[in-house]
Amino acid sequence: MLDKAWALIGGALGYGVLRMLKDKNGLVRPPGALEETAFLATCVRCGQCATACPYQAIKIAGPGSGFGVGTPYLAVRENPCRLCANFPCIKACPSGALKPVKERKAVRMGVARLNRKTCLSWQGMRCEICYRNCPFLDEAIYLDLQPNRKTGYHTIFQVWVNEEKCTGCGICEHSCPVEQAAIVVDPEGR
Question: How far apart are CA 115 and CA 144, in angstroms?
């Protein structure tokens, strides 16, 4: 009877640990990152990917990051991934936590999510900065031209995200002029 109780407790704790690993605290991982649980188990926390990044976009998670302490992530609002042609961060990874990516378009760090209530384009203002800065113009982010029903003139350039094409690089979030970005990379969309 006691063995069954300990087995249940152990199972519940194991499930809790796996759940915490899966939650990942909303960290956007570098290009080529394995699925979060595998990434946390494989990353040796050496920081070589951060050192290799020519834009210094990769940061190392500090205290308060749970199981992710010492792992690389991107704070894309501050400094997005530029999707370097040769992926020096991936080449620098000694453990395989960052797997090789054949082309820039194949990267999946997350998916940009648009808040239509705060997006200037959706408010009828002429702002398509995220669209213009997207490395995959008219693919990952595109515009839908709509008539302005409020004024009857001028066109509204509504911004849309194609989740299938979005790499999660964060260039859109970084370039958004709204104080609290109207477009944000969701790492869960990987």
Answer: 16
